[in-house]
Amino acid sequence: MPIAKAQPARHAAPRAFARESVEGRFGPLRAVHGPCAVAIFLAVAVTAGTAQHAHAQAQFYVNTTEDPPSANEHCLPGQACPLRGAIEKAESLPGGAIITACFDATIVENAKPCPPGRQPLSAEDPGLDLETGKWVMRFDADSPPFVFSAGGTQVDFRTGIDGWSSPADNHFVVDGTGGRRQFAFRMESDGNMLAGFDLAGEFEDSAVLLQGDLFQNQVSNNQIGPGLSFRSITNGNGVKIRSEQSLANRIVGNWCGLAGDGTTLSDVAEDCIYILEKAKSNVVGGEAPEDRNIFAASRLGVGVKIEGEGTDDNAVVNNWLGLDVTGAGREAMKSGVLVVNGAERTRIESNVIGGVSEAGIAIFSRVSETQILRNRIGIAPEGDACRTVRTYGITLNDGPSNSLLQRNVIRCGRGGGILLQGGSTKNNRMSENLISENDGEPIDFSRKPNDDLDPPRLTAATRTQLRGAGCAGCRIEVFSDPAGEAAVFEGAMTSNAGDGSFVFDLPSGFTFDTVSATQTQNLNTSALSRFASISGGGSTPVPGTPTPAPTAGATPTGLLFNSRIFTPAVFRTHPLR
């Protein structure tokens, strides 16, 4: 029977991928905007930051950190305007309002002047913390949390600061310490925004909660960020999105577990972001650099957790997880992303994950159609430096199915590269992942996942050719590596539809001196094969396999076949660590 033969083109450089289409059900991200606001009252606000600001809206300037239980008579011309008063006024207006502040220039060097008739947060305000230069609003003992039920309200403290660029420039803090409120802010309507201030304290639930009310109103098109800093949260999550009314919300440009200039750890007790109970189509991060969230420190939780049946079509895109703003790994968080218990069609794409104490990305139990695409795991945002993951880069445990793991760079895992575990973990495809510098197996199978599909058998090789056999009509992917892993994707082909044999020709030659391969049958991908080390001298086949005749024109350079047993002298040396 003839042997299937191919000369595939080599993949691009292993550490940078072009944006291109991938298999799956997710399209490109689209910006989510609230409804046009109605022009009423006081002023026309045109400020930078979101498209919503481009509409005429009422505008209120917070000028005190006091928190009276009721603020109905505040925020009139010439009067004190606490945050509570501004929110109450905004909630009473069709289309909401913009709530902001200007700051005393003796405290904030780059403060913008107040508009005529507006008063700044002053140096005499009792909530000013002179050490940090921040005005701290603490909830009054009898004051309830803030609830946005009308829609269209934007709390944005960036606009009073010239050149604001990140949470390092924030000068306003909402502090929930004492009283153990369920949350600081609750969104139960559309088109609201929070931006440009810090959130701290203790909460029964979370600092920010997005959840439908008793009337099942839709909670959509809300934007959390840019510029929120979730820090020193001693109880609760940063943001929780729950209920099937909560959909198409965005979380962009925030910090979690960081204070000051973004290098000081100040952890959150639980998860930075927690999405559950049928919340759908929410996006954490985004395509633009300014949409990137940086989640560094959680005492008990992870960066982003997505959980439960019906919690579908959510995305985690272009964030840094486990790192600070410099890209340093902080080892102050369990995992970057965790998806569990029935969530479907989650997209995890183009994130940088490192410095975590467990898996970079962990998928558990009955989770289906997860896409894990183009992430950098265990490596710095730029360059080659390790950002160690203490177990595996990616784990799929006890039930995930129909997943696609494609074009991820996975390095510096103390446990290994990718772990698939359990017989109920099946129909998971892995393609073109670049796996190297790990302490354990590049792809580790435990308890017969992916229908216990064996890797292909390599039977002979030269500098420019690899021969082997696998399942009939299967996709064969070939890799090379200096130490038997999968640092470079060399190309792919389809094995012979009859006997599964294949000849992979690469006229330009393999990049490194050891080669290995995976095979994919239907939706299941195998672990890496035993690797072949190309060396001078004769050709030594794998024991028990025939030695096929070389293809005409191919020049054998000899090879030594090895088992995947790592030796300290060869495989435990990681100069980049």
Keywords:
about 575 residues, mainly beta, Pectate Lyase C-like, Immunoglobulin-like, 21-stranded mixed sheet, 2 helices, 47 strands
Textual characterization of the structure:
2% of the residues lie in helices and 33% in strands. By secondary structure, the chain is mainly β. It folds into two domains: 51-357, 3 Solenoid (Pectate Lyase C-like); 457-571, Immunoglobulin-like, CATH 2.60.40. It has a 21-stranded mixed beta sheet that branches. A twelve-stranded parallel beta sheet has the order 2-3-7-10-13-16-21-24-27-30-33-36, with helices on one face. The chain is elongated, with a radius of gyration of 27 Å. Mean pLDDT is 85; it is low at 7-55 and 536-577.
Question: What is the topology?
Answer:
Elements: E1 4-6, E2 58-61, H1 83-91, E3 97-100, E4 128-129, E5 134-138, E6 146-148, E7 154-156, E8 172-181, E9 185-187, E10 193-195, E11 198-210, E12 219-220, E13 223-224, E14 229-242, E15 246-247, E16 250-251, E17 255-256, E18 258-259, E19 264-265, E20 273-276, E21 283-285, E22 294-295, E23 304-307, E24 315-317, E25 320-321, E26 337-340, E27 347-349, E28 352-353, E29 361-364, E30 371-373, E31 376-377, E32 392-397, E33 404-406, E34 409-411, E35 416-421, E36 429-431, E37 434-436, E38 443-446, E39 457-461, E40 465-469, E41 475-481, E42 488-494, E43 501-505, E44 514-521, E45 524-525, E46 532-534, E47 559-561, H2 568-571
Parallel strand pairs: 1-43, 2-3, 3-7, 5-8, 6-9, 7-10, 8-11, 9-11, 10-13, 11-14, 12-15, 13-16, 14-17, 14-20, 16-21, 17-22, 20-23, 21-24, 22-25, 23-26, 24-27, 25-28, 26-29, 27-30, 28-31, 29-32, 30-33, 31-34, 32-35, 33-36, 34-37, 35-38
Antiparallel strand pairs: 4-5, 18-19, 39-40, 40-43, 41-42, 41-44, 44-45, 44-46, 46-47
